Amino acid sequence: MSAGAPDLLPDLVDKEVMFFGGKGGVGKTTLAAACATRLADRGRRTLLVSTDPAHSTSDALGVQVGSAPGPVGDHEHLEAVELDPDAEADAYIRDVKDRVEEAAPPRIAQEAMNQIDAARGSPGAVEAALFDRFTVILNEHGRRFDRILFDTAPTGQTLRLLTLPEVMTEWMTNLIRARKKVRSLARMWGNVALPQTDQGPARKFDDDLLMGALVRRRDRFKAVRSVLTDRERTSFVFVLTPEHLPVAETERAVGALAKAGIPVGPIITNQILPPLPDGAQDDAFTARRLARQSRYLERIRCSFGGGAMTLLGVMMQEEEAVGLEALRRMEIRRLSTVID
Predict the structure, then answer these.
(1) 136 or 237, which is more confident
(2) Which of 72, 127, 200, 259 could in theory staple to 194 by disulfide, Cβ–Cβ 3.0 to 4.6 A?
(3) How far apart are CA 271 and CA 241, in angstroms?
(4) In DSSP terms, which residues pair with 239 in a beta bridge?
(5) pLDDT at residue number 240
(6) Strand order in the sheet with 264-272
């Protein structure tokens, strides 16, 4: 960063769990990488997780990022991982099949396998798989890292992912309730059909593997839901550019997250054009772009500046921010100081 430029990212975007989201192409990967780098520079053990199929985290950091957490260059406090949505979905399906084989008789298991294979291509399968890996990262890596930052896929997929805990918790609760009824009926039938022994169906259902799996998964969903809605631990950082589509999409997304109880952190307006230099007022094209930008910057301030959300701004860079040193040089300031 240039001398005297305030390093605002670590001060204003510093929660245990942070999501960077927004419309594709607005620079959320670069901002997530910049924030992760700054936090790690301050001694925070930081994990940057990419759930974006574009896999541009490696490009931003200037190093190859793998499918398991690994160090970024020689930085002792920064690690990164890129998740492949299709690979995660395949692994998720394999895990479900293994659990079914453990819990169900062969005839029932085969029918279940057919249904599981059909579900692999259904809407929401990838989001469910990513969410499963997401819960593992929070539960396992959350004990090893001080900060976990998620560079997310474009807004629509991310909203589906983050609202899954509420939906899935309710769904799992209903499955558990139905399973309890089955167990109760089986125990009653066992007592009638085999009154002379306690080694029949009732004993079998006391060791119900499926019930145990359902309860464990429901508890995981509830725990993640608790993290996502904890304002002291979590924030969702939106990145946008001063253009119609990113602004409109962010307005809708902020409302959707608020409805889901997920706290929204700073709003970062990226790629702000600098004012025309003296003597360049005859550049009609740039003048029109600046006038349009001014309208959308005012809309951003009106839409997001009235509440508790902090508005930050980043000027358009002369050079691409690639690698740790370039990410450190990015100037992230309060929006008012950038445009006033």
Answers:
(1) 237
(2) 200
(3) 6
(4) 268
(5) 96
(6) 70-71, 78-82, 46-50, 147-151, 17-21, 234-240, 264-272, 311-315, 333-334
Domain chopping of the chain, boundaries: 9-88+124-168+220-339, 174-219
Give kind and range of the element (H or E) at residue 312. Answer: strand 311-315
Question: Looking at the chain, how many residues does it have?
Answer: 340
Strand segments, DSSP code E, in 60-168 are 70-71, 78-82, 147-151
* 159 token code pair: 């909203």
Contact call for residues 72 and 79 (beta carbons, < 8 A):
yes
Please, what sign has the CA dihedral across residues 255, 257, 262, 268? negative
pTM metric for this prediction: 0.78
CATH of the structural domain 9-88+124-168+220-339, one choice from 3.30.465.10, 3.40.50.2300, 3.40.50.300, 1.10.3210.10: 3.40.50.300
Alpha-carbon distance values, 80 to 12, 20, 129, 305 (Å)? 21, 15, 19, 32
For 153-165, what is each residue's pLDDT tens digit? 765 556 666 666 5
